Amino acid sequence: MNERELRKRLLTDPVPEELEARERVWPTVRAAWETRERVSWVERRARPILALAAAAVLVGAAVSPPGRGVAGWLREQVAAEEEGRELLRLPASGRLLVESGRGPWVVRADGSRRLLGAFDEATWSPRGLFVAVTDGRELHAVEPDGKVVRWTLPRPERISNPRWAPSGFRVAYRSGKTLRVVVGDGTGDRLVARNVGPAPPAWQPGPEHVLAYADEDGGISIVNVDSGEGLRRFHVGQAVRELLWSANGRRLAALVDEERIALFQPDGRLVRTIEARRGRAILAMAFAPSGRDLAVSDYSPASGGSILVIRPRTGATRMLLQVPGPLDQLAWAPNGRWILATWPAADQWLFVRTERPSRVLAVSRVTQEFDPGSTGQDAFPRIAGWCCP
Amino acid sequence: MRGAQAGSVSDLEALFRDHWPRAYRAAYLVVHDAAAAEDIAQEAFLSAVRSLDRFDRRRPFGPWLHRIVVNRAIDWARARTLRREVGDEGLVTAAAPAESAQRALSEGIAGALAGLTPEHRAVIVLRYLLEYTPGEIADLLDLPRGTVNSRLRRGLDRLQSRVEEDR
Question: How many other C-beta atoms are found inside a 10 Å radius of the C-beta of residue A257?
Fold first, then answer.
């Protein structure tokens, strides 16, 4: 084979997935381009300007009060650069919503991030155009750049667990021990149920505004919030820690007291129970965007934490990752090819590829990235969602 | 490039589609893993997009992108054997979608390249796929030119012998 033939074969021999990969990657590149930090004329010339400003500070601060003003401007410029700097890159498209002691952050695929404000909890609207945030006794809808508050809803009791309906037209939330729903524009607030349990409510994917929630006494209710009709109510006997609908809305998963996951049909019929492995507790679960697989995090002090991917229809289970400590949250990437697992004890995030060959990308010192100065697992940020395809 | 910098999404798409085939192909020929090649090429484009507004239009875009792609591909291939890929042995195995295509390809030039070290693959890809001169490859990989020439020579020798073995 001569060099000419080598060149020709390198250029023309088929390469697997070339076109499919191109079509998968283009939306990510486009999204990164559309959400990039625009560089102004001043920023493009920031270095020479800052150098000049620094020189001005040295002269000005030495001789006159206005010099202090120049120093303040310089500090602000440096601080602004810190706020938007790149922390990590997401291995897949979409944006992460992260709750921290400083408030919720939006992290873009290219790693740039923005603090939405001094809010408590946050949740994406279905297409990521808005974020519902809580602030003590207020619920707000804000734009993801954090600059515009679209509406505010005050309540007499503390607000928690906001969840935006897949249609975008309703937001469910807890106010004290009541479950309430407000229209997506902030109007029409109304009561859905009293004495609800601590598990956040879960909207069923689909055109109807159907909501599942857990009672304080181990019951699960499914209601149509528009008609007020109670569709189903059934008991699991123990505390429900989490409720999730599969992407196609045909399965409702209930994490029951760290011991098992019960999978129900929308009519309340139990179709499968996934028991915790011997001596282990189930800490978290997350349905894949495809709806076919369920990722489960379990843990035992003796053998550490694991992520399992279970196909509920067949029961097929595969081990995705094992680490020495508990992984307390799971979030699928919108493309279903990565899972983000949070590891508070190690102060790390782990991005785990779900396809073979497996791959793990670790992000360290997560607390310092989102809540500088705070320490301990209580300060570890929480993932509020990975949005959108 | 000028249009993409000015905010034209169609120009950005044209730039992406123009450069994707060689970027992806270069990554694949170094790492021999379709998923990794996709990640590497994607990362390179994301890096490019992040820096697009600062990019000096007097410089060519291709070498800038290829430098990122090939260096990351070398890093990935080197790390592959060192990286702890947890849990593989316990997985319920299912054929990866690209497996059959990869097997088919292993009969061809990519299969022959797979027997070389990542460093040798990279210089051959840069020289014969991306058509850089040895001097340009030395700049891209931050290597002495003599090292590039010797890697090219040895890489070609090994490639030739592997192709002949396959025959």
Answer: 15
Contact A22 B17 (CB under 8 A): yes
- For residue B83, the tally of other CB atoms under 10 A from its CB is 13
**pTM (global) more than 0.95:** no
B95 — contact with chain A (CB < 8 Å)?
Answer: no
**B90 inside 8 A of chain A by CB:** yes
Report strand pairing: A131-135 vs A122-124.
Answer: antiparallel
Cβ distance A216 to A227 under 8 Å?
Answer: no
Domain assignment present for residue A54? The answer is yes
Q: What whole-number distance in Å separates Cα of residue B31 and Cα of residue A21?
A: 15
Asked if B25 lies within 8 A of A10 by C-beta distance, the reply is: yes
* Contact between A25 and A93 (Cβ < 8 Å): no
Same structural domain, A372 and A271: yes
Write down the H helix ranges in chain A: 3-12, 18-34, 41-44, 46-63, 66-83, 366-370
Q: Is A207 part of any domain?
A: yes
Length of chain B (residues): 167
Taking an 8 Å cut-off on Cβ atoms, the answer to whether A322 and B53 are in contact is no
Residue A52 shares a structural domain with residue A112: no
Residue B45 has its nearest CB partner, among A17, A25, A356, at: A25
Size of interface A-B (CB pairs under 8 A): 153
Provide the Cα torsion A82, A86, A87, A92; round to 10°. Answer: 150
Alpha-carbon gap, residue A55 to A228, rounded angstroms:
68
Domain range holding A52?
A: 40-83
Residues A68 and A106 in one domain: no
At A86-117, the pLDDT tens digits run 456 789 989 999 999 999 999 998 888 899 99
* Nearest partner of A353 among A22, A17, A31, A90, judged by Cα: A90
Domain of A265, CATH number, reads 2.130.10.10
Read off the pLDDT of residues A199-215 as tens digits, 9 standing for 90 and up.
999 999 988 999 999 99
Whether A292 and A325 map to the same domain: the answer is: yes
CB-based contact A192:A179 (threshold 8 Å): yes
